[in-house]
Structures are given as structure tokens and as C-alpha cells.
Design brief:
This protein is of the alpha/beta class and 118 residues long. It is built from 3 helices and 6 strands, in the order ββαββαββα.
């Protein structure tokens, strides 16, 4: 089994939605998706994992590598709804990867607060 992905833009945020199983066989497909995202947009990227069933250690490393790739072009990576079967523990040389409980929470974290300019 592999992954399916789609990329959308909402509130000036890139949203990379990933479904399926991010395992060793899907790492190259995920890296290709991230390469596609790097060439489009300029703001933060939220990787929405709501529909991801599971991820392997290789899949988690692919997420960390995606954060590095995006940081190289001045973009950040955030996660929404990580799978229950593991937690992401990036190394000390990895950019910070904020984790949100769900996509709505990730979007809310980027919404202008009352009284702030949009």
C-alpha cells in the first residue's frame, strides 16, 4: 500500500493532505509531493495526516526531511492529526515542527486574532 496526496492553498497556507500508509514503499512518492509543493507557494505548509492510517520509521524520517527541504527555501512545515501509532521525534538539527491535533486547529493557529490586522 502507498499514499495518495493532494495540495491546496487556504488562508495563504499550503496544505498537503496525505492518505494511506507512509511506509518504506511510499517515501519516494511523498518526497515527490514535497518537491511539487516546494515549487508552489511561499508560506508555511501544513501536512494534513487526518486520512493517514499509519506511518513507519521511514515515513517519519521522510517528514523530517520534508521539514528540512522546506526550511532551505524559507518555508516551515507543520503537522495536523498525526497517526496514533507513533510520535515524531526530530533530531536536534531539524527545524521545529509544530504539531496540531487536527487541520482545523492548524488553520486556527494561523487565523488573525480579534483586533489584529489580517
Amino acid at each position: 500500500m502507498t499514499i495518495e496526496w493532494r495540495y491546496t492553498v487556504e488562508q495563504d497556507l499550503g496544505i498537503l493532505s496525505v492518505s494511506g500508509y507512509l511506509g518504506p514503499d511510499a517515501v519516494h512518492r511523498f518526497a515527490g509531493a514535497v518537491g511539487w509543493v516546494v515549487g508552489r507557494g511561499s508560506g508555511p505548509v501544513i501536512v494534513d495526516l487526518t486520512e493517514l492510517r499509519r506511518w513507519s520509521a521511514e515515513g517519519q524520517l521522510a517528514i523530517i526531511e520534508a521539514a528540512r527541504r522546506l526550511a532551505e527555501v524559507g518555508r516551515s512545515l507543520e503537522l495536523a492529526a498525526i497517526p496514533a501509532d507513533g510520535s515524531l521525534v526530530p533530531g536536534g538539527d531539524c527545524p521545529s515542527i509544530p504539531v496540531h491535533a487536527d487541520l482545523a486547529g492548524a488553520l486556527a493557529a494561523h487565523s488573525p486574532r480579534h483586533g489584529e490586522p489580517s
